[in-house]
Amino acid sequence: MLTALQKFPVGMFVIDEAHCISKWGANFRPEYAALSELIKIFPEATIGAFTATADAATQQDIIDKLTNNRAIKFVQGFDRPNLRLAVEAKTSWKSQLVSFLENKQDCSGIVYCLSRKQTEEVASFLRDKDFNAIAYHAGFDAKTRRENQDHFMTDSSVVMVATIAFGMGIDKPDIRFVAHVSLPGSMEAYYQEIGRAGRDGHPAETLLLFGLGDLLQRRRFIEDDGDDEGHKNREHKRLDSLVAYCEAPACRRRALLHYFSEQIQSCGNCDNCIDPPILLDGTELAKMVLSTVYRTGQLFGAVHIIDVLRGSLTEKVVEKGHERLSVFGVAPGYSKSYLQGFIRQLVAAGHVTLNIKKFGGLEISQSGSVILRDELKFEFKKIEDMPMESKSSRSLKKSITEHSYTDENAELFSRLKHKRLAIAQEQNVPAYVVFSDTVLYQMVDKKPANEDEFSKLFGVGAKKLEKYGDVFLAIINNEQ
What we know:
Blueprint: H1 2-5, E1 12-15, H2 30-33, H3 38-41, E2 46-49, H4 56-67, E3 83-84, E4 87-89, H5 93-101, E5 108-112, H6 116-128, E6 133-136, H7 142-154, E7 159-162, E8 175-180, H8 187-194, E9 204-210, H9 212-223, H10 229-246, H11 252-259, H12 271-274, E10 279-281, H13 283-295, H14 302-310, H15 315-320, H16 336-348, E11 352-355, E12 361-364, H17 366-372, E13 379-381, H18 393-404, H19 407-427, H20 431-434, H21 437-446, H22 451-455, H23 462-476
Parallel strand pairs: 1-2, 3-9, 4-9, 5-7, 5-8, 6-7, 8-9
Antiparallel strand pairs: 10-13, 11-12
């Protein structure tokens, strides 16, 4: 083809779905990447590239690949204000979907599914509920796919139940709804899929049902997608951003557009604007998280940040020396899942960003810096998995210092530290590997009398209980 084209004075190449060119893009394809050779083979030709779903990193990569950074960029904007956005935790997809489709019998719409099997199951279920539903996935032969697509394009009241195989090139203007009964693969994919609704400018509705089972399946898809670990890491972080959107406590449109580096005021046309969730003051915990992100260098993902916050002596924490930071163990009373949800809400609010080029390292945004300076409050959507205990290690230390640190407690703390040092020297490990100061503070504060009470101290797991429980209990109970 290239040899044939070189026989003609080609004036312009137009490339659609140009995000597929970028290694940062959600749909990177090697065949598209080969288009970067066009500028060398046809140096006089103009190249125009178009895409509806490219974040800032992807936009720049497209420009670099196709033009050697010599391009004019036009961004029309990502906002589709006529689309009503809604997300629900998936409890019973059948009843939730029927409820969403109520009064939509005479409308055209799309229901996206995760698998071919689910596609046919959902289509059959909707037909049983008297909806004009048809299925579409890559497992059908070309004739069936063409017939089903033609049916959808020409009929004004068809529900197309489909995998992502359906949609590219679809330009039906009067699609009134798009529902996802399972989690899309990324923010880009989600934006592209809901963007097929309401192209006539009239109101359209969207619904995303979010379940942890779907999230696990998406993770598996990513892990099974070849051997490129960098690609897998980027896809995981894209998925993280979508989950953060699902958990956004405030305007969903703001969270969605923030991902594409666009800022708007609250939209008034999403579930969180119309029916606001219960919000709690999370400013203090936010400052702990942001401070930990900052002090670890803004290089690490949420898993590592949570390990530092909870005082977990993982191999990575010790390798990086982060157990010696002042933020180590400042939030031991929060479960991992709670902190994961909290950080996703910080990301959704734009106070923390995921740097895909740095493999999803958390970075503090301008608004996050304002929170750190205590000049902005952070409210978050109530998380059902509440903290295991409301005290942070800082409040534990404060409790001992200001309330319990009598001469007796000071003497007990000293004996505990000496025993910890002796054990550490005997095992040839740093003292914190035995127990952190945070755990010792709790021993002084709570004075556990038996193994059951000792096991409830934050930072005391089954192994440490078995290894050190009797020794430290003897000191606490003045038996040693």
